[in-house]
Amino acid sequence: MSDLPEFVLDREFDAPLELVWRAWTNPEFLQRWYGPGVETVIHKFDLKPDGVWLNEMKMSGGSNYQKIIFKEVAQLEKLVWHHCSADADWNIAASPMMPDWPRILLTTVTFADNGDRTNVRLAQIPVDATDAEIACFAKMKDGMSGGWGSGYAIIDELLAELKAG
Known about the structure:
Elements: E1 7-13, H1 17-25, H2 27-33, E2 39-45, E3 52-59, E4 62-74, E5 78-86, E6 104-114, E7 117-126, H3 131-140, H4 144-164
Antiparallel strand pairs: 1-7, 2-3, 3-4, 4-5, 5-6, 6-7
């Protein structure tokens, strides 16, 4: 497969760029919105190229582990990372919840200043994926906006708090 499926989500937030950037790059804020409906534990967060974010989402059936490896960090402009499914020892591994889900997604988040509002574009594509992983991603990508959208609703609440405080 040469043409990889891509998930893209565009969103405008009612807050200035600096606050939206903080919501995406401050672990205290990230754990509030990332993985809505579950307990998110950030074990490590090193926001720099080749730095890692070790993320655990605790749910009733156990934990889901993710290892995020930052590839590019352009202050207030862009975050690029490899979003990896991981085991409890932070090794890249198949997702126990969905074995054909891509082990690695290239995630690019861009931020654009729009006065007192901020435009965010999130894009994800599979990296070094098998045909089965690409097919799984292609099948599931249209439903991914629901999960991200739930997190974005929490970001809206967080941004309102930050603007008020």
